Amino acid sequence: MKQPTLRTLSLAICALTLSGIAPTLQAAPQKAGTSASAQQSVKRFVLHTNVVDGKMVYVDDKGVANPTLTVAVGDTVEIELASGEGAEHDLRIDELGVASPKFSGKGTQRVRFTASQAGEFQYYCSIPGHRQVGMFGTIQVTGKSQPAKSASSTSSDAALALYTPITVPQKGADPTAVDISASPTQLPPPIAAHAPQVQKVRLETVELSGKLDDDTSFTYWTFNRQVPGPMLRARVGDTIELTLANAKDSKAIHSIDLHAVTGGHGGGEHTQVAPGQEKTITFKAMHAGLFVYHCATPLVPQHIAAGMYGMILVEPEQGLPKVDREFYVMQGDMYTQRPIGAKVHQDVDLQRMSDELPTYYVFNGAVGALSKTHKMQAKVGETVRIYFGVGGPNKIASFHIIGEVFDKVYSEAALNTIKHSVQTTVVAPGGATIVELKMDYPGSYLLVDHALSRTGKGAVGVLEVTGEGIPGVYKPSAL
């Protein structure tokens, strides 16, 4: 029989079928008396995916994470793959030309290939972020590499040529993309004084295509289909029973870490939720202040940059002073493969994220969220309070309102520390502030990050103030 060429083997992407998981991870038994060449036959392995010690891994039936697979040159290798936690994964071995289709909790895949080269190679998951957080292992191929032969035109060659990688054109913007930007006016009302009570909160993590900019879409990962996630509100002493559900059509595990929580990685340790599942934690609101929450599933920065952040306000026992209007605003930095303004469906760029080179800076999840999509309005004489936080994952914000001065700033959102007459306040990633200002003159006031190049990348909002200006505050020159 004509042997396949090395070129053919390097192009081969495994034949795949749906099947159940075999009971053990083992090589096929060898029969006594067979020759060395006959022993180089079929080696079968079974791997399922899981999260172990905070890392995504492949696991064998004995519970070994990222086991070393040992085969010989010339062996036919079969690996059965299943998603143990329901999230989407794949398996690649670049040097051996192996690339499985993606698989999830909906079934299993079998990948089959011939080990053509001797050496140690890495098998890994190519889903963005998974390899970086531990999803890789070693396959050892013993023996001598097969010599390369001239290419032939067998029917096998023709079939395998169908799997030759091709350049996929950039996708246009998703026409079904929806608005994911949270309205700055949608936040819980102030909480009246009360004895400590139990609050029940339910959040759902949802992956969906959203509008990032005009004619630009992005696959967001969200809490309750919005960015930022819903603002939560409690009083010191309250107990919060929080249930986190992960939509069944999600492709990733998700979780929640609330900076207001003491213990359990802020809840992240015990809310790693697979698609279609849910988990509940209970915590006491012990500290007054405004706190960020975010997803804490590897690769954590990727989940945050995709929109998985929000805030919880814990009011002091006596509550906060009454104001006329409250707004909920969060800044995030986003990392995409194409420049800002590209009329495409943007994909995440993990290298840019690692290098901390954002493509976009956004308020409430999208370009224009607070200037075109949603309105922030007030009247002369009213006192406005803005709850402002930074989801990040990487960049500090220099929060400023062009044309106004903050009358009060609760520094770092600590309610026992108030500064007066502040022009710009610095907010760290994963941090927050509360600012208050009395509106003395009508006009359009711009919310910005005073690293002003970021306004051209999306970080700008508008607060429209109507009414008659207070005499003497400001007077434009006559035209």
TrEMBL record:
Enzyme Commission number: 1.7.2.1
Question: What are the protein's UniProt keywords?
Answer: Copper, Metal-binding, Oxidoreductase, Periplasm, Repeat, Signal
Q: How does it assemble?
A: Homotrimer.
Major enzyme class: oxidoreductase
Q: Which reaction does it catalyse?
A: nitric oxide + Fe(III)-[cytochrome c] + H2O = Fe(II)-[cytochrome c] + nitrite + 2 H(+)
Name of protein: Copper-containing nitrite reductase
Cofactor requirements of the protein = Cu(+); Cu(2+)
Q: What does the note under cofactor report?
A: Binds 1 Cu(+) ion.
Family membership noted in the UniProt record: Belongs to the multicopper oxidase family.
Give the residue range of the signal peptide: 1-27
